[in-house]
Amino acid sequence: MTTPSGPLFAFQDIVFPCQANHHGTLFAGHALQSMAKAAFLVGRSVAQRDVVMASVTGIDFVSPVPVGHVLTLQARVSRVGRSSMTVCVTGLAQALGGPQQEVLRGVFEMVAVNAAGRPAPIPRSDAALPNDPLPFAKEIA
């Protein structure tokens, strides 16, 4: 799999019983909420302003995440346009003492907005920001 370039944002959380479905694994709605938060945080950091979600594509629930596992979400920008960007989010789960395993992945389109909620330009001061098509999205499409 090709890894998207650009700034990386990562955070960890533990899966508690209140986030589980009737199978004792992470409820998909909680997983999507966490993935959206990761996409928002890296998008806002890159845009240097608020962002909103325009679309979500290619969400894959690769493997269930049992209660008690640590979930690490990694978000990386793979494309920056005038006011929009593509953010790829990957979820890695780990049992205590075990290896990390990819369990989630998805692609989020985020749009930078001004105070009135209208699309606003993303500053291009960082030459390292990617401008390539979606290498990650191609892998999950």
Q: How does this model look, in words?
A:
The protein has 141 residues and is an alpha+beta fold. The chain is built from two helices and five strands. The chain has helices spanning 28-47, 135-140; strands spanning 8-14, 51-61, 70-80, 84-94, 101-112. The chain has a five-stranded antiparallel sheet. A hairpin with a 3-residue loop joins strand 3 (70-80) and strand 4 (84-94). It is elongated. The two termini are 12 Å apart. The model is unreliable at 131-141 (pLDDT under 50).
Q: How many helices in DSSP terms?
A: 2
- Strand fraction equals 35-45%
- Radius of gyration using CA atoms only: 15 Å
Largest sheet: 5 strands, antiparallel
Determine the N-to-C terminus distance.
Answer: 12 Å
**Beta-strand segment tally:** 5
